[in-house]
Amino acid sequence: MRPTTAALWAAVMLVGLQQLASLAASPDSRVDCSSKNLSSVPRDLPQEVEFLDLSCNHIKQLHRGDFRNTTLLRSLNVSWNGLEEIDPGTFSDTPLLEVLDLSHNRLKNLSGQRYLLHTGNLLTLNLTWNSFLTMTLGSAFTSLVRLERLALGAKNISMDDFKNIAGAKLQTLTLCLGDELGYEAGSLKDVHALRLQIASTSGKLVDDYLYADALSLFDEVELMNMTGGYRELSEQLSQRIEIHTSHLYLTNILIHWQDLTHYVNVILRTSITHLCFSDMAMSRLPQVDTDVTKKSKMKSFSGRRVVVKSFLFSQEAVYNFFINMPVESLAITETSIIHMTCPKSQSPILQLDFSYCALSDSIFSRVEGQQTLECQNLGNVRKLILVGNNLKNLQFLSKRVQYMKSLQHLDLSLNSLIYEGLEECVWPPNITNVSLSSNRLTHTVFKCLTKGIETLDLQNNQVSVIPSSILKLGNLSSLNLNANRLRDLPVCDGFPILNQLLLRSNSLHAPFVNKLESCPKLKTLDVGNNPFTCTCALRSFIHLGIKSERKSHPGIELLGWPLDYYCTYPEDVRDTILKDILIPDVTCNVAILAVTILCPAVVVIVAVVILCHRFDVPWYMGMIWQWTRAKHRARTRQVRPEDLVGVEFHAFVSYSQHDTDWVHNSLLPNLEGPAGGLRICLHEKSFVAGKTVIENIMGCVGKSRRSLFVLSAHFVKSEWCHYELYFASHQQLALGSDSIVLVLLEPLPQYTIPSKYNQLKSMMGRHTYLEWPQDMAKHRLFWANLRAALQADLPDVPVTEIEE
Ligand SMILES: *[C@@H]1O[C@H](CO)[C@@H](O)[C@H](O)[C@H]1NC(C)=O
Ligand SMILES: *[C@@H]1O[C@H](CO)[C@@H](O)[C@H](O)[C@H]1NC(C)=O
Ligand SMILES: *[C@@H]1O[C@H](CO)[C@@H](O)[C@H](O)[C@H]1NC(C)=O
Ligand SMILES: *[C@@H]1O[C@H](CO)[C@@H](O)[C@H](O)[C@H]1NC(C)=O
Ligand SMILES: *[C@@H]1O[C@H](CO)[C@@H](O)[C@H](O)[C@H]1NC(C)=O
Ligand SMILES: *[C@@H]1O[C@H](CO)[C@@H](O)[C@H](O)[C@H]1NC(C)=O
Ligand SMILES: *[C@@H]1O[C@H](CO)[C@@H](O)[C@H](O)[C@H]1NC(C)=O
Ligand SMILES: *[C@@H]1O[C@H](CO)[C@@H](O)[C@H](O)[C@H]1NC(C)=O
Ligand SMILES: *[C@@H]1O[C@H](CO)[C@@H](O)[C@H](O)[C@H]1NC(C)=O
Ligand SMILES: *[C@@H]1O[C@H](CO)[C@@H](O)[C@H](O)[C@H]1NC(C)=O
């Protein structure tokens, strides 16, 4: 058991390694050895080669074992080699071979191509341009059961030549035939192919039986490389009663105008339903109109890459021939026609395609004198395709098609259309599907649309905004504005049933999702590849994207999410997909932001207020303020020395008898003693006998630098004290406003002061006073302040010490 497992494991490893190797060497799967002057298959081809091109060398022979080492070969091109012989075992090592091109060689006998026995997987086999005399396919062809495209060429084709491929269901059988062809009627009856291509190697191919068989056996017949023989073909076609072929192609042909028109007229009378010319060169073009068959079973006519070989001819005659064709679908594409005329009578054409021509704004119209006559004979046209022309003015175009009453589908992509918004557009009423992509239209285009429009493609224009005052497009369900210049999502007021809105590659920075509320029917939205700015404004949009990811979610499907949605700004998140961007709520929501900032602020303020209140900060502040003022005053205001003559005391103290205790026990010890060093005059202490109280007081005031009033309810009641104040206020004039100091012993609201004491009232209003604090802790500061207010240099203790 164990060795088996090990072996298995090793095998798995080996296979894995081989696969790795083949992956790494994938460029080697395609090897181009064309035009290398090789005379044999190279020996050093990489083993992995799948596509090998050995064309244009001189490999004369292919041998068994030439491809022994290239077992993965799928496509081999040995054309243009002068190859004469291929060994029957050549391809026994390349079972995967699908494409084998052996054209332009010198192989001789189609019955003898025995190497084909080993190429059972072939899809495409090209054996044209060899030296085959007869088309007799050997029995080896029976092994090509998967074959889809077979290309052959020989001089003679006879009955039973193809019986060995009767079992293959071919897509295309290509026969490259020269003009000396010997064709036996009915030879092609064994072939089962959808399309028969007959390429003329000489340019001229005249074989009635071949044409007859082609037209009666194959759905699609393509005649290639013809420069003549049209008369015979036309005759053949007109004589035949029964034609099986529905699609007839003429490719790479050179034809006279007369032959072409004759030929087309003949075909119009047959049962062929689709006629297609491509790579056609027309010569001998007409000067006058050519008649065209009036009635036909033909459904479509198309001309692709048509060129003219004449210079002098009537363009109108050429256009007239084509536009008057009685077909349902007319297409002339990749052809440099500059105008198209109007049919002579009401045309049965349902679909017109003039893609990639050179048509101008005058299309279908005719100028007569000063007037432009609009075409009225294309009333059945439902679909008009004018992609890639030279159209310039959308309003003119609306005039050109105004009588196409059945027009539903209009494609004007890839022109240079503009609309200036001045003149009214006159579209026919039934247009539902309009493509105006890749033009130069701006927002004014919304004024030039029809009401019934359902699908509107404005891709790759210059629309920067959808005007709010547009015509109501009540049936518009799909609006493509990819690659324009929009800066925000539009409002759907103008298109209430909009289902699909494409805004890829515009200039949307931060789509305002709320606008989508006006689009109740919106199912599909594409805003990919816009320059998103990943800031708060984008959050609702990111949310929309994430929501759309959920399959069960019934809302809007966001196309291209998440890979096509990435930030362009700010720099640090550039190219990050929106889905991976996280924009926190806090930074965006104003309310939350306010709360997060304001809350702490409020807390701090409240705390400060509480703390202030708790520790009487305002009182301290007031005290400090007073103290600094006092200091400042002391420094700046200098009293002239002569004014201080006779002044003995720093202060005279006036107080009510009721406050005597405080004055004696608190005030005086703090002012006079060693702590204060001030001299205080109390009228009872410095009382001079023999003088009246008034005289004593007057004396005291006169000898003091300042007057200190201890204010309390009692003081206010005392007339006496009022007088003292009166004197003091007079003296104040002499010694400056700082000569009066008020101490408020208890709160003394203004109303408690009788109105007659104007003096006191005004003084209390003017002077800032010192308040006696109840809190013991604050007393020290109070005293310091009071002392500072009273401090002054007095002349009496030695006079010489008075400043300076
Ligand atoms: C091609 O190869 C042949 C011999 O195989 C040689 O004679 C000839 O000169 C070569 N031609 C070129 C262009 O190399
Ligand atoms: C195949 O490969 C072997 C060894 O690499 C080499 O000797 C031999 O010539 C090669 N054969 C062919 C036909 O390339
Ligand atoms: C083989 O090469 C020739 C010449 O290079 C080229 O024309 C032809 O298309 C090639 N065949 C295939 C099947 O690619
Ligand atoms: C062609 O090949 C077949 C079978 O290999 C053979 O019978 C026949 O004689 C060959 N014909 C010619 C002309 O070589
Ligand atoms: C041979 O035919 C195939 C398929 O019909 C085609 O792709 C290829 O180009 C042809 N080879 C040449 C040299 O024309
Ligand atoms: C080819 O056909 C012609 C006329 O049908 C005939 O004369 C000729 O012998 C044929 N050639 C061959 C090789 O079958
Ligand atoms: C087309 O016909 C010309 C002759 O008119 C010829 O030289 C050319 O090889 C032909 N081309 C093909 C693909 O048959
Ligand atoms: C236009 O459309 C309406 C409704 O679809 C239809 O009844 C009417 O026949 C159409 N007009 C033409 C001219 O086709
Ligand atoms: C409208 O035109 C576009 C582009 O030609 C086409 O893909 C689409 O299917 C059309 N829609 C309708 C409803 O005809
Ligand atoms: C919108 O479509 C409905 C139903 O197809 C139709 O009846 C109506 O006329 C259309 N509206 C316009 C303005 O064409």
From TrEMBL:
The keyword Repeat applies. It is found in: Membrane. It is a single-pass type I membrane protein. One of its GO terms (cellular component) is plasma membrane. Residues 647-790 form the TIR domain. The chain crosses the membrane at residues 590-612. It comes from the Eukaryota. Pfam families: LRR_8, TIR. Disulfide bonds join 425-448. The keyword Zinc does not apply. GO terms for molecular function: transmembrane signaling receptor activity. InterPro entries: Cys-rich_flank_reg_C, Leu-rich_rpt, Leu-rich_rpt_typical-subtyp, LRR_dom_sf, TIR_dom, Toll-like_receptor, Toll_tir_struct_dom_sf. Keywords: Disulfide bond, Glycoprotein, Immunity, Inflammatory response, Innate immunity, Leucine-rich repeat, Membrane, NAD, Receptor, Repeat, Signal, Transmembrane, Transmembrane helix. GO terms for biological process: inflammatory response; innate immune response; toll-like receptor signaling pathway. Its main location: membrane. Coiled coil: none annotated. Residues 1-25 form the signal peptide. Belongs to the Toll-like receptor family. This is Tlr1. It comes from Scophthalmus maximus. The lineage of its organism: Eukaryota, Metazoa, Chordata, Craniata, Vertebrata. The gene is tlr1.
